[in-house]
Amino acid sequence: MALLYHYATTFDEEVKYIWPQPTWKLGRILFLTARYASILSIISDWTTSTPNFADISVVGCQVGLYASNLTGMVSRMAAEGTLWLCLYALLEGKARYLYLLIVGFLCFTIPAQVLQSFYIFSPKAITPSLMDNIVGWPCNFGPVRHQSYYAIATYLTFTRALLAALVGFVTISIRYRKQDHSLIRVIRREGGMYYISALVLLFAVALVSTPGIPVKDKYSIVGPLRLVLINVFVERLILRMRNVDDPGTQACISTLMFNRPAPRSGSDASEDISEALSEASPLERRASSEEKSIA
After folding, report:
1. Does residue 250 sit within a domain?
2. Residue-number span of the structural domain to which 153 is assigned
């Protein structure tokens, strides 16, 4: 429900900034895919896996399970793909980095998703028991199989998350080290905080999910946080990347992610500044005012 509430309250931003973009821009595709695949996954999961007293056939339950798992997988891939694309933008859009990132992402993602698919699609819908009917569960499923496949997939996912985190932190530290003004303010303005938060959360999820690692999510907190926050962080990151002021990153964003609005002058330019400040935090607005007073 928290994620659906976020989607509802940010729909105006989607219409304003994402819908006008060209159809085949990667930024638009990834944003909409992550958002609407997640919505379909939530609806499918709620229909089949909550006590809602719905009258669903065994075939319908099986279709609902497949739909929930498939759309959830697509949403997660789109969200993580966005992070890797933003990493490419932070690397100033050099072609060799794009090829390396694509190969690295696919080498881990394709086998991990294939192996994970054997696991998450293995339960078969069965006729609900009398107790299920009394409680209101519309569906019942058999046991999950292929746990060994899932274990291998988690190792691959952990390695991918670790690699993304290492490359991301090294890139950000090197890139922002060249900035003359406040490190934290620059990172916040260009969406780096959302990027760092998403990397940390993905790594935490991979860590607690990997067999053999003693760190466990005893109270099942990290998993639900991942379902909500990763999509939120990725969406905010895409929207904040519009304001990146580094020329190399700007060129990459315009080429792959979305078209940047043409610069405006006069009163229109003042509106742009006001809009950018309205998206900033109070500390960022204060820092901007201090910079203007010094100038």
Report:
1. yes
2. 2-257+266-281
Q: How would you classify the pairing of strands 140-141 and 125-126?
A: antiparallel
Structure token digits, residue 229: 């926050």
Residue 21 has pLDDT above 80, yes or no: yes
Using alpha carbons, select from 253, 221, 261 the residue that is nearest to residue 237. 253
Which range among 78-92, 96-110, 132-146 shows the weakest confidence by mean pLDDT?
78-92
CB of 113 closer than 8 Å to CB of 73: yes
The token pair at 265 is 């002058």
pLDDT exceeds 50 at position 277: no
Domain-located, residue 295: no
Longest dimension (CA), the chain: 75
Name the range with the highest mean pLDDT among 127-131, 242-246, 260-264: 127-131
Alpha carbon of residue 3 to chain centroid: 12
E strand segments, the chain = 125-126, 140-141
For residue 125, what are the β-bridge partners? 141
- Tell me what pLDDT residue 292 has: 44
Q: Decide if pLDDT at 14 tops 60.
A: yes
- Domain count along the chain: 1
Residue 252, CA atoms < 13 Å, CB-side half-sphere? 21
pLDDT at position 136 is 92
Q: Please tell me the distance from the alpha carbon of residue 241 to that of residue 250, in angstroms, as a whole number.
A: 9
294 in any annotated domain? no
- What gap in Å lies between CA 131 and CA 134, rounded to an integer? 5
List pLDDT tens digits, range 170-196: 877 776 666 655 555 655 666 677 888
The DSSP-derived string for 135-175 is HT---EE-----HHHHHHHHHHHHHHHHHHHHHHHHHHHHH
Indicate whether 290 belongs to any domain.
no
Residue 199 contacts residue 165 (beta carbons within 8 Å)? yes
